[in-house]
Automatic annotation (TrEMBL):
CDD domains: ABC_Mj1267_LivG_branched. It comes from the Bacteria. It comes from Aromatoleum anaerobium. This is ATP-binding cassette domain-containing protein. Residues 5-238 form the ABC transporter domain. Signal peptide: none annotated.
Length: 240
């Protein structure tokens, strides 16, 4: 398996607060890495460092063997890094379909006539096809989360970063989401998924990374990580 992403001792501070402290990990082609950790552990900052929303103070972010730490977000998107946000950020005054077209035409540099059938297919997969002509700003929170995933997919990512997209979903909706993510994974897309809905994450993840106070607490096979006494204590509040 080839390596698509590598973080090498990456750190980020805001004043005296070190939100990411020398974290290193790699991700293989087609692999799904699940990230767990308590609120404030530095999980979303990791995504921001990978997507380019913020730049690291120290360390290197490597994509396909090339350092991308100085590249802005839109360049990283065109290289093949797509992401969703924990708090959805749709173009509220545009329709659902137009939101996807923006992702495909600007993120993937695709001609509009080529992008349209791809966007329709993604809307169908994510359950948004019937709402294609609805303004994104009028969607419910759950549909905005679906739109976040759909917009990220429209950029045709090689690496997909998912930030808590299962939060607030019913059990049935979470099952449907897991099926969709399994489909995406089967197409060879590498993924990193931050999630508090642990059963959804465990249904898809090949490996788990647990962070706490900006540092790596545990990493490895899901079963061994979930049985780690420190993980049980810090993340699940279980004294072992």
């Amino acid at each position: 398996m080839g390596e698509i992403l590598s973080l090498e001792r990456v750190s980020k501070s805001y004043g005296a607060l070190k939100v990411t402290d020398g974290i290193s990990f790699t991700l293989g082609d087609g692999e799904m890495l699940g990230i767990l950790g308590p609120n404030g552990a530095g999980k979303t900052t990791l995504f921001n460092l990978i997507s380019g929303d913020v730049r690291a103070d120290e360390g290197r972010v490597m994509f396909r063997g090339k350092e991308i730490g100085a590249l802005p977000p839109h360049h990283r998107c065109r290289l093949g890094i797509g992401r969703s946000y924990q708090i959805p950020h749709p173009f509220a005054g545009m329709t659902v379909f137009e939101n996807l077209l923006v992702g495909a035409t600007f993120g993937e540099s695709m001609a509009e006539q080529d992008a349209e059938p791809i966007c329709i297919e993604i809307l169908d997969k994510t359950g948004l096809k019937k709402k294609a002509n609805q303004l994104a700003g009028s969607l419910t929170l759950l549909d905005r989360k679906r739109l976040e995933l759909a917009r990220a997919l429209a950029t045709r990512p090689q690496l997909l970063l998912l930030d808590e997209i299962a939060g607030g979903l019913t059990e049935q909706e979470a099952k449907e989401l897991v099926r969709l993510i399994q489909e995406i994974k089967a197409q060879g897309v590498s993924m990193i998924w931050i999630e508090h809905v642990v059963h959804a994450l465990l249904a898809v993840a090949d490996r788990l990374l647990v962070v706490n106070f900006g540092s790596k607490l545990a990493e490895g096979e899901p079963e061994s990580v979930m049985n780690n006494p420190e993980v049980k204590r810090v993340y699940m509040g279980i004294e072992v």
